[in-house]
Amino acid sequence: MSPTFSSLSVRNYRIYAAGSLVSNVGTWMGRVGQDWLVLTQLTDHSSSALGIVTGLQFLPFLVLAPVTGMIADRFSKRHILLTTQSFLGLSALALAALTLTGHVELWHVYLIAFLQGVATAVDNPARQSFVSEMVPKDRLTNAVALNSASFNAGRLIGPAVAGLVIAALGTGWALLVNGLSFAFVLASLLAMRVRDLTPAPRARGKGQIRQGLSYVRSRPDVMLVMALVFVLGTFGMNFQLTTALMATKEFHEGPTGYGMLGSIMAIGSLAGALLAARRKVPRLRILLIALAGFTVASGIAALAPTYEVFALALIPTGLASLTALTTANAMVQLSVDAQMRGRVMALYMAVFMGGTPLGAPIIGWIGDVFGARWTIGIGTIAVGLSLVAVAAYLYRRENMRVRYESDRRPRFSVTTERVDAPQPEAVR
């Protein structure tokens, strides 16, 4: 089998990936349907309302991260996923029913977004770390990348289909398809051979949350990656909000035009995921190069004079952002102890998505006051400044290391320290 798809030779992962692909298509249809519902049916294109919805979806990541990570490390990840995916499917069906019957109101969307955020906050660390139980360690980077490829294949198909469904039948039908799609991922979890899974040791005893926080604080390599991901996630990865505002406010497109933007961006994202699947070892320099590419591409998108130029700029933006996220995810998962992985990934997802409750309403306000283009421009500036700060930090650290080696210790002794120090290959 091609190295790009090597994880698919593992039966459990192959079944899981198939179910997830169908569910991801539905999820993206649901996102487009929800945003279109808020912008065109429940408000008069209010970017602030859409920012609140987005913020409510991600607020639980920030608040519940230590607890959800402990849950992922203490209980069966497969059982957690069966519970959370069932709840997400039922809540999606509830929003579809309210919309189809004409009873939906804005507060319904707010409430369901928040409840789904709680379920997703529990779901995410279990789902992220569950990958390592399905595939051997030498295929973990490949499996993480293929998960991203599946997610972005859903982004490629889902928004375009949602745009067509909304234009032909109405928003409620796109939301209904999303609710029904959760049955596929539930079926894949039930069809697995449990005996083939390799669960990590369960966390036991008191103080598990505090232990997880202390572990991350003791790992400056992991904290550096999380800092970069925080800036990207908070200010740069609000595409659900920014593309909706650009499509409706700046270019005056309908649901089909808006849906196509998500699919066009997914071309770059899918390409980034497949390229990442070929790399055996994720490295910090790949992450930094990808963030630099994101800064340039998103800057072009913010300044795009026409809908067509904006759509084309989303392809390299998607490629760069997905490369950065896949690399960061694999770096963290490969570099931490197996029994800590659930708690670390919960904190990672809190850092990545937990900034959205702060960033999304601010970006929504920026869209109302300064215009849709600045909702993208602020992310371009923030990611660019974070790169400058990290470059200065790495340069200073390297200079300090050189002085330390030349002035205070014999070179051989220092080399021995560097080999024994906890600096995983994935982060160099």
Query: What is the helix/strand order?
Result: HHHHHHHHHHHHHHHH
Main sheet attributes: strand count, strand direction, barrel closure: none
CATH-defined fold name: Growth Hormone, Chain: A
Structural class: mainly alpha
* β-strand number: 0
Low-confidence residue ranges: 404-428
Percent of sequence in beta strands: under 5%
Rg computed from alpha carbons, rounded to a whole number of angstroms: 21 Å
The structural domain count equals 1
Number of helices: 16
Can you say what the CATH homologous superfamily is? MFS general substrate transporter like domains
Helical content stands at over 70%
- Average residue-wise pLDDT: 82
Q: What is the architecture at the second tier of CATH?
A: Up-down Bundle
What is the CATH C level class, in words? Answer: Mainly Alpha
Question: Care to describe what's here?
Answer:
There is one protein chain. The protein is an all-alpha fold. The protein has 16 helices and no strands. α2 crosses α7, α5 packs antiparallel against α6 and α8 runs antiparallel to α15. 54% of the residues are buried.
Keywords:
single chain, mainly alpha, Growth Hormone, Chain: A, 16 helices, globular, disordered C terminus
In short, what is this structure?
With 428 residues, the chain is mainly alpha-helical. It contains 16 helices and no strands.
